[in-house]
Design a protein that fits this description.
mainly alpha; Helix Hairpins; 8 helices; 75% helix; 0% strand; globular; methyltransferase activity; Tetrapyrrole methylase family protein / MazG family protein; transferase; NTP-PPase_MazG-like_N; nucleoside triphosphate diphosphatase activity
Length: 167
């Protein structure tokens, strides 16, 4: 299958997923899905991320990728859910999310996308850090909230373990 054919199928499925989430959140959709917010979906988001880790572990130990595929889909659903909510709020769209990460990866890999040559892994890493620092200029305060987010994530993981019966 050619790259363009794969991309066409992928976009059709992404659009289908977006339509499904929009339908779930519509007036005639699911009452639970309709009332979700960025805040209320935090537990599901962290739980799905942990389940992706489990999927990777299962694949590594067994060679069976089915669970990983399913869990990546569940995490993608969380990303789509947050993107649809953000679009409803007039903040950004799923396309904006994809564009932002694509642009970041191209910027941070000039040795792949812009013909830049590095003489060592250390030089490449230093360049990565310099690019990242330039991207974050004026937004350094974002990192001030990271320790709090890690603590919240730990609490959410503990609650997820309780819900799943592992505590």
């Amino acid at each position: 299958m050619t790259k363009s054919k794969r991309m066409g199928i992928g976009m059709a499925e992404i659009n289908r997923l977006k339509e499904i989430v929009e339908t779930l959140r519509s007036e005639n959709g699911c009452p639970w899905d309709r009332v979700q917010t960025h805040e209320s979906l935090k537990p599901e988001c962290i739980e799905e991320a942990a389940e992706v880790i489990n999927g990777i572990n299962n694949y590594t130990k067994t060679g069976d990728a089915e669970n990983l595929k399913e869990e990546l889909g569940d995490l993608l659903l969380q990303i789509m859910f947050h993107s649809v909510i953000a679009e409803e709020e007039g903040l950004f769209t799923f396309d904006d999310v994809a564009k932002t990460v694509s642009e970041k990866m191209v910027r941070r890999h000039p040795h792949v996308f812009a013909g830049v040559t590095y003489n060592s892994k250390e030089e490449q890493h230093a360049a990565w850090e310099k690019i990242k620092k330039a991207e974050k200029a004026g937004k350094e305060w974002h990192a001030d909230y990271l320790p709090e987010a890690f603590e919240e994530a730990k609490e959410l993981i503990e609650k997820a373990k309780e819900r799943k019966g592992y505590k």
